[in-house]
Amino acid sequence: MTSSNYTVAVISGNFTQRGSTAIIDKWSRAEMAIKNGERTAPTTVRPLSIHQTNSICAKKADAFVTGVLCHSSATMIRKNVLACKLIRIKSSASRLYQIQKEGFRPEMEACPYCGSRGCCVSFASYERYVLDFLNGHPACETVRVPRIRCGSCGRTHAILTDSLVPYRSYSLFFILRVIGEYLLHLQTVEGLCIRFGITHSMLYRWFRLFQDHKAEWLGILADLEEGPLAFLRRLVSLPVYCTFSDGFCQKTLMSFLQSHANPANCCFQPGRHP
Description:
- The chain is built from nine helices and seven strands.
- Helix 4 crosses helix 8.
- 27% of the residues are buried.
- It is 35% helix and 17% strand.
């Protein structure tokens, strides 16, 4: 049907790009692809190390468009809703997201890719699961993520808030709570995982990522001087949390606790408060 000599099939893992659990596991989908003519064996992409990420960030540090930090790879606009201490927030991540959506006007947005103003319109939306911790229990909620389209360059952008971690179903509050209880040794690892409904490997992955991002933010010497529990306590007690999250995005081109790099044309809008 085309003049191409080869085609390449790229299949996601057990979670979709929108953060929900895939209906069919990755091995079954790979098997179906092979049975239908695809000859590529399934592979696993290894995450970048901190040093590799720093190298990539340094090469792309000059990508600024009208005050918006752009990465040559993803399509999202990040909005700040955490303009206070995290320990004072009583609402769920999904509720904060809904509040932000109520006042959102796409025509007021500047396209983070081309910088055009007044050209963005509502384009589409998709559902995303958000796992939070409410009233002492894990809770799963659904949010509808809007996308906008720039009439000037044709690019589309999803709208997310800093209470959500890109490409994760678990909210920022949920992950930080798990890490906090783990560091406080309030119960055994087994009891902690049962309480939050997570696996041991998930807990350790989150903690390693937390430590990596802590080191990346503080630098080698400061990281050695401040332990993970002290850093977490300072983080949740910051007068305005989004000042940290903005700074982290500008430094790393990723959100805090985001596990892998953004796809093409990612644009963050730091410093915008609701």
